Amino acid sequence: xxxxxxxxxxxxxxxxxxxxxxxxxxxxxxxxxxxxxxxxxxxxxxxxxxxxxxxxxxxxxxxxxxxxxxxxxxxxxxxxxxxxxxxxxxxxxxxxxxxxxxxxxxxxxxxxxxxxxxxxxxxxxxxxxx
Length: 130
Prior knowledge:
Number of strands: 9
Low-confidence stretches: 114-123
Strand order of the largest sheet: 1-3-6-8-7
């Protein structure tokens, strides 16, 4: 089973693109946080932030385009995918992305950075059609 579930904060506004026949895609960078703790010997282990590359397709990407902004808190479900590419220096690079198929917006409407927030619960929870 390949399933990823994350709750985190959007690091920057989504990158939106329309490709083949008007299919909407959205890229979002999501930060998750692991709280720090204290070891039995008194050593402090600090909080740790992890950054995730999210990819949205079709209708769910259109929802992201309309409602998601930097700083918003999201719950996402998807699958982990890794791909590679060759950069301009000829070096093969690898990137790991989460292809999101379910999203729930967790930022309260009053705190959202956009005036066009969803007005119904159905608008805040979206599943990809694939």
